[in-house]
Amino acid sequence: MSSLSGSSPQRITVCAPRLTRSSVSLVFVSGGCFEVDEDLTKASLYSASVSICQENPDAAQFIELRHCTMGGAVSLHPGVPEHVFIGGPYFYHAKGSALDTSDRIFAPRSDFDKHIHVAYGGPGVPVTSSVTDRTGLGLVLIYPADQTRGNLTIEPVARIEGQRFGSRFGHSLLFVDVNGDGWDDLIVGAPYQHFEALQGGLPQYGAVFVFLNQQPKFPSPVHDRSGKNPFGYESSDDYQVITPPKKRQKYSTPSLSGYGATLTKIGDINHDGYQDFAVGAPYGNTGGMVFIYHGTKSGRIGPPAQVISAADILTTTKLRGFGFAVGLQNVDLDNNGYPDLAVGAPMSDSVAILRTRPIIRFDVYLVLPDGSVDLPSNLNSLPDCTIEAQSLTGYKAATVRCLDTKLFATYSSIYGLTCDSGKKYTLSVLLKSDPVIQWLLEGLEDSRPGSHRPFQRNVEQCGAIRDPNAPIDLPTNPIHSVLAVAPVSFINEQPVEDFGEKALPFFHTNESANLEALKTPGGYVTLQVKASCRNGDRIGTEPDLAELNSAENLRLFFRDTDLIDQSKPISIGAKWNADIPNPTPSTHDINKYPIADPRKNSQILQLNFTNQCTDKVCCPRLRVTYTAKVTRDKQGPVVYVGDDKTQEIEIKVQVDNIGPDPAFMLALLSEYSPTLLEIDPTVRKVHNVRSDAAMCHLANPLMPGQTAECTIRWLVVGHQLTVQMASFFVNSSLVMASNIRTTVDGSLTNQLKVNVKMIVKVSVSSLIEPKTVYFSGNVSDGIKSIAVENQIGDARLFLKLEIRNERTHSLVPASKLVIDWPYEFVGDPAEPHGKYLLYLLDTPRVTQYLLPTLEKVTSNITSVICDSRALKKLVNPHHYRIFSSLRRPTDSVPVRSEPVDLPPGHPNSYPPLSEGLVLKPYSTSSEEPEENRNRRQTTISCYNGKVRCVPIVCELGKLSYKAGPITLELEARLWDNTMREEFSQVFLTQLEILATWRADVKYGIDMDGSDHALGKVVLEIRNNLEPRPIPPKYMSLYIGLAVFGGVLLLAVLVLILYKAGFFKRKRFFRRQPRGGRPLSQAHKQGSRGDRSISERPAAMQRLEPRPLRPGGPQLPSGIVPYSSVHTSNQHPELTNEDPDQRVSYR
């Protein structure tokens, strides 16, 4: 479970803390350590490691004394290398001890008042202490050697505590120099360090803490009872926490893997100049895991360079607990220059010896067909590949140039071993144009000497000669990101997003670095190449003929040669995977099975230009002048929406090279709003490189003393505006090479702000009827005495507002009308409520003509929406009875009611309220009567502080010239009681009602210098100075008595008339008596009692035909005239009555 390289390279100490020996009736878990040779064949037991447990006289009585676990930790004596310290964490009732091979026993101190929790220390001896109140967090104490006295002090120089309870911080310890500064750094394992679960996952356990040595900060040793605190790492910036790889990386571990249970140093396994170490996770996947970490210059440890799983090792017995012990500590068993590793699996009684395979370095080269890496200075001399480049998406110039190159690979040993010249390995190479450093290094640090050249930014002085061995410079030009195109492209390249998981095998240590490819434009392309051997004497030399013949052809495409920065090389990133066979456990010569360094599979490939700026640092000096041509008003540049006239915006730049060095890749890039602007096609040399960007090339290069200028012109058509905006910007910038320092007289950028406005002609017409109203009478009882609307006041007011778009072919997409409604008169501004002034009777109504649309619209639907909050407060709040019959007959409909806010730019409050009226003489003319000259008048409105107003905000929707006006109607009554109380001494009161129209758009409105339309109506309120008569108190009683008296008098009159015979019917008599007697006699007989025909019984009467005039029309037979009466049956003498006889009725 623990191991140690011995005092000589040929001897190794191996321990088995669970070594068991049985006697007749007792079982001893004594543990023990063995010393073996380098061939692992001869082993000798340290007898003291076993006898210390078995020879205890009390062991037969206590089982705890038979459980010693000697060999839980092993270390060399710091002063006497021949002596070995062996730790037994469970020795003597789990107090622990350290045994020297000289048979000296070092037991823990026992002079403390109490002991805290003692955890099994695994490879380390447990430490007990009473000077802490953080029980269960774990503790590490560092004790320095006292060189003056030749012994160890017990006064700690540093104290480091764990972070979480039960984390077992200090379970394993390791001193190793991970940053190469000559000081050993401390690594502490905490296998049960708890980390909160991510969403949808399980909590993670296990961590390793890396504390870099800060020896200059260490104070003198401090006694643990002195009350002083030794040095500690307080800030999280002072140390690094390493956790198991997460699932998004190449390797993953289960939640409870025991990560950090063991730590061991393995030397410089990759020969980069920094010490490496291994971390064990005995409960990892499929039996346990071991993680290999490489040291770095900064001391920040990156992802594991290699993960060894028990399932990867071919054995006859399944390994369990693989990683409980990791040892050998920099021992090279096969003398191949690389330290080997031993991993214990105590749960399967096995130890795995892992021999380190030699590491080879692969190099990938990109050259021209002749083997050179120099590009021509004039890229326009390259072949025209425009037709072949049609498959490339994105921006391309009118002419696309291409270049044929060759790609080949070589390999060599990093430890000086020779390679087989006939042996070749297949590489799968992933190429990316213009990559970033993070993509290449996968978050790791720059390489050390002996590997590839490091990547960093050059900071050389102007005019300095460039060092060919200087760090490779990887500047990225922002123009390529703006245009979303790489400097060079490949046929059949795929976007990074589409390449997907096929790219992950090329990222050996950090798969998330694949996302760094999205930071620069360009996609992926893969090639298969054969890597041939290159021994040390040929590393870095030009390719030979055999390498060129075996190389793969690769064609590069230049989308726009003017966008190639010739002051720096063309850079292409390369990552590769090597197809190398793996050895078997029976392989004798492991050197025939090398392995590629998993952290060194990236390289930058470059093709160079030849000019004066490739040999020295160029620093050109430019003078830049911008000019703009655009329509302007008082607020600056402006364009008008809906204007039929064509408008233009023009940006011109002039660049003069007034310095000694050339300037490369000069171009003018302008970004603009494509919804309003379009490039003028008549201007040459201007390209739409993006839907919202245009570019004009100036020069590549611009030599000293030369001048270049460029103009970009846009056309503005007002009806093209589809997105509302108050203004837009035309941002222009001078693009140039990013690899050179440029001094600029003027500015590289120019921003032109252009306001967007609409020319509008909108009118608001207002009318109120009646225009003049009167009030008089006496003060009433107030609100509670009113039941119907006419009790509010005599005058019913009709307010009409008409909003009309008077500009031909004009359409305002959205607008609002704000009516300042005079709600209350303010007597005392301190009072929250005043007295009603205008009482709104009903919801406003609207008359509107809607333009025909595809949707079916009913006739009673309107687009006008008024603020429901204001209407709720104003419209008949006391629910008085309203006479609908008094409403004027119109085609209007009620407005819709929803919350509507004030339009932008409208004041959100009224002026402060003030007390008292401002009175003025009604007439100042001397010709007026004295009575008029003594009268007073005043004006009240929402904006002079006399009236408390409520804004009625109405959203009108679209206001079109073609659709006609929108008419709003409001009906209200003047609250007469307020006028009687507050305006009794005022003859004329002028009440102003304002209505403001504003467009509800983001762009500006131009209405002859204003941005709104105003409508005002003035209501004249006159005092007639005549008080109304006061009615009696019992007026209803009096009225009732009067009605009763009248009814009684009428009844008396009717009775008198009845008694007087006024209602008796009159009789009638004949004019001539019967039987031919004289009329006088007949009358006399009638007076004596003869009855007339009318008085005879009805049965005795019948109708008789009336004689017709001679010669007149004759009636048909059977028809009797209705006017004739006869009684032939009773009085035959009347049958032959003379025609002149008549019947008289009275």
Q: Could you write a compact summary of the structure shown?
A:
The protein has 1146 residues and is mainly beta.
- In the predicted model, the low-confidence regions spanning at least 5 consecutive residues are 106-135, 149-153, 446-458, 1079-1104, 1115-1146
* CATH topology tier name of the largest domain: Immunoglobulin-like
User: Would you tell me the structural class of the helices and strands?
Assistant: mainly beta
The CATH homologous superfamily of the largest domain is named: Integrin domains. Chain A, domain 2
User: What is the CATH class of the largest domain?
Assistant: Mainly Beta
The overall pLDDT average reads 78
In terms of DSSP E residues, the strand content is 25-35%
Number of strands: 65
Main sheet specs: 10 strands, mixed
Specify the CATH architecture of the largest domain. Answer: Sandwich
Oligomer: single chain
SS element count, helices? 12
Radius of gyration: 56 Å
Shape: elongated
How many domains make up the 3D coordinates? 5
Task: Tell me the distance between the termini.
Answer: 154 Å
Amount of helix: under 10%
Domain Integrin alpha third immunoglobulin-like: 762-995
Region (Disordered): 890-916, 1073-1146
Family: Belongs to the integrin alpha chain family.
Biased composition (Low complexity): 1109-1118
